[in-house]
Amino acid sequence: MEFLLLGSLAVRREGTPLELGGPRQRAVLTMLLLHANEAVSVAQLAEAVWDSPPVSPESNLRTYVAGLRKVLGERLVTRPGHGYQLTVEPGELDLDAFDRLVRAGEDALAEHDTEAAADLFAEALGHWHGVPSAELNAGPLLRAELTRIQERRLTAVERYAKAALELGRFDDVIGRLRRESALHPLREELWALLMLALDRSGRRGEALEVYSTARRLVVEQVGVEPGARLRQLHQVILESRVPSPAALNAHRQLPMDIAEFTGREAELRRLCEPGPQTTVVISAIEGMAGVGKTKLAVRAAHRLVRRYPDVQLWADLHGFDPDELPADPAAVLESFLRLLGVPGAQIPESLEERAALYRDRLAGRRALVLLDNVAGEDQVRPLLPGGSTCMVLVTSRRALLRLDGAKSVFLDVFTPGEALALLSRIAGADRVDADRAAAERVAELCGYLPIAVALAAKRLARRPQWTVRDLVAQLERGGGLGARGVFDLSYQALPDNQRRLFRLLGIHPGEDVTADSAAALAGLTPYEAGDLLEMLLDEHLLQQHTPGRYSLHDLLRAYAVEQVTAAEPPPARATARRRVLDWYVHTSWNSARQLNPQRALEIAPADPAVHPRAFTDRDSALLWCDAERANLVAAVRDAAEHGLPEQSWNLAQCLWDFFNLRKHRADWIDAHGVALAAARSVGDRAAEGRMLITLGIALREVRRHDEAIECNRQALAIFRAVGDRARQEPVLNNLGIVYMDLGRTDDALSCYEQSAEIARELGHPHTEAVTLNNIGLLHADAGRFDLALARYLRALEIRREIEDPYSEAILLNNIGEVYRGLLDFPAAVSHVDRALETFRAIGDRYGQAESLDNLGLALDGLGDRRGAEKCWIESVALFEELGEPKADEVRARL
């Protein structure tokens, strides 16, 4: 058997949960488990179960014990004269496992093995899955016992946090400490550890914010100032002049600096000099393509990090990219807000609201924002923070004359001295000094353009047998000055396999490339492609902002497009494009199968030369989608524009779960709109209908209800015309949801009923359960609880048959709400508790927060105010972690 005390009470026999009865019976079991293998007297049990025990509690306790014996059997025995005793075997009780691991962690600390201690404390805390007693009617003795084990848990949290901080695992503990300090606001050690974790990870501003929160809560609840430890730590952080080493963080996004950066000292001094103290500092670096604006901005940004340690954000706005439209400021703001911790579902739709929220998130924080390749003032204006604690670095090929308050730094080509310095740094000072006149001629032939000088120097460095005069001869033989001549020299000197991959990169969709996608493009293995990409990086023909991801400078991308057009016949270009798009389609399909195993989508086999990535779990699939998002959206468009409509709509369809999960609604509407047009262009009615379904869902989410209705109506007409009953089923369900949003309940119910009927007819239990759940919601909203319950219970039966724990948990929570509406609070507690256990098992924090709120309402209905309070406290903490506004609603209950 398995006894679970550290959260919601549960007992399992061979993995099957046992029915433990009502709150008082569960309180009896909790007390017996806390004193497992010991006799617990009737007096102790009475004080554990009632605040004011009945005159003769023995008969009530005998009833509860009898109920427990039905499920526990001979494990529960009577000890005449002593009370009752529950036998628990070693390894069966989670509290014992927790205590054993904590003791082992303490031993590891005593032996100075901090890493082992941290791992042991983390494993011990992993046995906890909630707040004990939330569903119990606990008396004073049991409350004291539960407080005692909660104290042991908090001590373990503090020991774990200290060990993890010593190991530099800052991000591991910050989230846990935020939650614990919210749940236990008077425990000052938790606040202190959270401040340390934030400060040591370079987030000093947030550490000071934590102190302000802690102080306010302590003063409000106790009426005194925080203790000496917190006050002293606050002072130390305030007085520190150098921020602690920064750990990786979502809002520290600067590209990598380059070791061979040369010259530009006057410009760097100007960019780094202190600005006005009353407004945001804006510095605009302007100059021609290839002059080194981005490299200068990145070098300046890294120098300025100490002045702006809290946040560093970066975005390429593609203002002058021939293959991409300039970045939409709204899309850039969405990306920044996500990095700043705003969940996708909470990001506003309008540009103005996003800009306001962005300014709010940066208010009071020392933030540096680097905006590269800006097309013009209108593109950059919404991305400017509002406070004087922030700085913005902008690069552009245009003079940004209408950008109020901006300090312009014009970047010209290198001076002869700077060009020679870069040649010396890359090719070697001895070679340059040996023939300075020839070196000056190299710089002149490169037009003093930094990108050209760097490529020429790299060519010389890779050929130790050459003199500088040999390089001059090569450049003069090419007959051109500036970048083009150097590009030709570098490209022609490459081996055939490197030259072929370089030019093929000119047709790769999106912003950057990986070894996997390059392999598909060129018909190679990822290992072969990775080697070639590294060689091209060594030749300065590629850039690398992030390890493993490569990109082309704008000038080199245009050159690659010229070369691929000249050297590869149209059939070869078409084959390469099809291969890389096949790779994106099939890898996206593999990711979609992890994100939603219930999805059914048939796609044509990939080219045999394509080896799509596989994913072992949901997290790795999501990570890939996050990294490739821009490329994936570009690939949908690229396929549509180059006569590959099937790849366009298949890729869009594969991305639906990712867009829906992350709430990338702008990308969702853009990609599926392009794919819809692609399907219509070739008259594929089935694909057109599928795109209308998913586009309709996105439009409903952004509250464009009329357009959503039209999409669903068009899809329904298509599937009725072609006789596809299976596709009519989700369209009717989605149309019902839009009608429900608009309050058109009769129309919604009609759609739901039609969808459920088709699902039953076709034997599609998953869709039938979804639709029945929606019908139940509609009836519940209207107060028709009996009708809602019937639909929910039928949906629950179906869910159990198809083993979908997530959907089953949603249903259990909904059923609990209905039982509350029927005033059957014990049944509500039972169902919501099971939902909560499932949400915890699958790691769904939003589901946990919702069910904890619901459980609190049910317990409140039973009169268990303490249990309700504990549930709501935990719910608030989870909603706050997720950035959900519902936290305020639940806090109001408290």
UniProtKB/TrEMBL annotation:
GO MF, one example: ADP binding
Domain of life of the organism encoding this protein: Bacteria
Keywords, sorted A to Z: DNA-binding, TPR repeat, Transcription, Transcription regulation
Keyword Transcription regulation: yes
TPR repeats: 729-762, 769-802
Biological processes annotated in GO: phosphorelay signal transduction system; regulation of DNA-templated transcription
PROSITE patterns linked to this entry: OMPR_PHOB, TPR
Alphabetized Pfam families for the sequence: BTAD, NB-ARC, TPR_12, Trans_reg_C
Domain OmpR/PhoB-type, chain residue ranges per copy: 1-88
Keyword flag Transcription regulation: yes
DNA-binding region(s) in UniProt: 1-88
Assigned protein family: Belongs to the AfsR/DnrI/RedD regulatory family.
PANTHER family: TRANSCRIPTIONAL REGULATOR REDD, TRANSCRIPTIONAL REGULATOR REDD-RELATED
UniProt name for this protein: DNA-binding transcriptional activator of the SARP family
Organism per entry: Lentzea xinjiangensis
